[in-house]
Amino acid sequence: MNYAPIILSFQLALVTTICLLIIGIPLAYWLSESRSRIKPILEATVSLPLVLPPTVIGFYLLLAFSPDSSLGYFLKTYLGLDLIFSFTGLVVGSIIYSLPFMIHPIQAGLSNLPKNLAEASYVLGKSRWTTLKHVLIPNIKPTVFTGIVLSFAHTLGEFGVVLMIGGNIPGQTRVASIAIYDQVEAMNYAAAHRYALILLVLSFVILLLVYVVNGHYFKNIGRASI
Amino acid sequence: MLAFDLTKQFGKGNTAFTLDVKAQLPMGKIIGIFGPSGAGKSSLLRLLSGLEKLDHGFIKVKNEVWSDTTKRIFLPPQKRAVGYLFQDYSLFPNMTVAENLAFAAEKNIDPVQLEELLAATQLMDKKNHYPSRLSGGEQQRAALARALVRRPSLLLLDEPLAALDQTIRTSLQTYILTLHERFQPTTLFVSHNRHELATLCDLVIEIEAGKIIQIGTPDLLFGETQTIDLVSGSFRVLTLTRSENKLIVELVASQQKIKLALNSAAWPELKSGDRIQLTEAEFILLSSKIKH
Q1: Are strands B2-10 and B17-25 parallel, antiparallel or unpaired?
Q2: Are residues B139 and B272 both part of a single domain?
Q3: Are residues B193 and B263 in the same domain?
Q4: How many angstroms away from the CA of B157 is the closest CA of chain A?
Q5: Beta carbons of B106 and A225 less than 8 Å apart
Q6: Predicted confidence band at A187 (pLDDT cuts at 50, 70, 90)?
Q7: Fewest beta carbons within 10 Å, which of A165, B7, B244, B273?
Q8: What is the mean pLDDT of each run of 10 residues along chain B (292 residues)?
């Protein structure tokens, strides 16, 4: 059995999740605090991947990243980035596709924290960044953890976006979900089954981990020993 | 001197509420803020701390302008020397008592000072406990110690004793007085409780529907003294006593004798029998209520 698609899926999920964590925390913080008029527009944009078929997102990303488009031309000419049929392109697509899975739990966690907690930090002379880092994030650990795990698992199972912008290049863009599709098309059900079973088991273990860890965390809070 | 003259509208439409207050208050005292729910007591603290911005007006502490809408000055809460004790204490749940205090401290603060605060609030044996393992009274003391870490010029206490039972309230009043005596911050203390205000405060501001209606000593506000009209105008000085910075004068206004404390430097030549022109912002009433 060729494990390359599984390894590539994990690499994609890991890189995407790290990028999402870096982008997601400040964005979720801004969304939880902001009273700006553009906030609903940004919230709707972040949530789009939840309702759109992945092929629609993949299709528009394909058009946007194509060297014929202004963006694609700019990226290729000035930054040397060719996002079509490349691992980097898959990462960018996955970040957009999994964005709500990171943003929503963290935004909900921050919104549910008492407002006084951040204000108490501000009147102690602490900046917004210090407050976020030392007060807010440590008090929403379970939701950050949920965001990380859901983003990872969601990227792991990605198919439509990957197929549209990455194609099916072995070792570069052929992730596990594409490999399953390939094997089914070739009527090789045994190989498809092996890939599918690995993804199924891993996804289940990841979700189980979320529930166990979060349950343990809240139980500890109940025992008054955060 | 803590001086403010400010307006701020909260909410919109039918629920709109405007806070419109003006006062000059002496530094280093405990000043109570009294009034019914929704009068604007907590809103005033939020404006003083910089958690809310003024619509119009100014806030000055000593000679420093914290906010002035005409000069477009606004110091954010981080830049104001404020200690704020919230009604729910708002201790950080992810930090122990000692960590809460250390977080509040500037980098150059001597750890001995933190130990001193823990000792003053009798929390030495609880310093490694998380807030969730503290009683209400202990949480209040920890939050008070944390608010004092940065040696604030202004300590804002928003109904800090409201959620506690009477026994704990009484003992915590003693803590507040002891800590105030030791660290001398100008303290604004919001409360509904007249007895508490009478015990703790040098001066009480009564607020109703967003306006200051009286300023005076607790005895005067809560005692039997007759309320008089606003004292502004020209008065003959009956008696006069000078101390370091203060000038205590006795005069007749609204057909009754009243005693006022004035800034001594502003009246260097004043003597008994002179006439004095006063506006409400220039004095602190000592012996009678004032009606705004």
Answers
A1: antiparallel
A2: no
A3: no
A4: 12
A5: no
A6: very high
A7: B244
A8: 91 86 89 89 94 94 92 93 90 93 80 81 89 89 89 89 73 80 87 85 90 84 55 75 74 69 76 77 52 44
Q: What's the whole-number mean pLDDT along residues A188-209?
A: 90
Same domain for B187 and B148: yes
| Nearest CA distance, B76 vs chain A (angstrom) | 9
Number of domains in chain B: 2
pLDDT, position A226 = 33
- Tallying the residues shown for chain A, one arrives at 226
With contacts defined as CB-CB under 8 Å, which chain B residues touch A116?
86, 88, 90
- Quick check: B104 contacting A, CB < 8 Å? yes
CB neighbour class for B16 (10 Å; exposed up to 12, middle 13-18, buried from 19): exposed
Asked if the Cβ–Cβ distance from B132 to A225 is below 8 Å, we say yes
Asked if A117 lies within 8 A of B94 by C-beta distance, the reply is no
Q: Which residues contact B201 (CB under 8 A, 6 or more apart)?
A: B29, B30, B31, B32, B189, B218
Cβ count within 10 A of residue B84: 29
For the stretch B160-172, pLDDT in tens is 877 677 777 777 7
Look at residues B201, B222, B243 and tell me which one is the last residue of a structural domain: B222
User: What confidence score (pLDDT) does residue A221 get?
Assistant: 54
Q: Which of A214, A24, A44 minimizes the C-alpha distance to A107? A: A24
CB of A68 closer than 8 Å to CB of A74: no
Distance from C-alpha of A144 to C-alpha of A73, rounded to nearest angstrom: 36
Q: Are both B195 and B60 inside the same structural domain?
A: yes
**Per-residue model confidence (pLDDT) at position B130:** 94
Angle made by CA atoms B255, B258, B262, in degrees to the nearest 5: 135
Give chain A positions within 8 Å (CB) of B150.
Answer: 124-125
User: B103–A139: do the CB atoms touch at under 8 Å?
Assistant: no
Q: What is the pLDDT of residue B16?
A: 86
The answer to whether the CB atoms of A123 and B49 lie below 8 A apart is yes
Contacting A residues, span 91-120, partner chain B, CB-CB under 8 Å: 114, 116-117, 119-120
The predicted complex's ipTM stands at 0.77
Q: Domains of chain A by range and CATH?
A: 4-222 (1.10.3720.10)
**Last residue in a domain, options B222, B248, B267:** B222
Backbone angles phi, psi at B156, to 5 degrees: -110, 115
Please indicate whether, in this complex, the C-beta atoms of A123 and B84 are within 8 angstroms of each other: yes
The answer to whether B132 faces chain A, any CB pair under 8 Å, is yes
Locus of tokens 């110690």 = B145
Domain with B237, as residue range(s), is 227-290
Indicate whether B241 and B279 sit together in one domain: yes
- CATH number where B64 lies: 3.40.50.300
Asked whether the beta carbons of residue A119 and residue B51 sit closer than 8 angstroms, the reply is yes
Summarize pLDDT for A70-126 with one digit per residue, the tens: 898 898 888 888 888 899 999 999 999 999 999 999 999 999 999 999 999 999 999
Per cent of chain A over pLDDT 90 is 58
Query: Do B194 and B281 share a structural domain?
Result: no
**More confident position, B119 or A39:** A39
The CA distance from B61 to the nearest CA of chain A, in Å, is 16
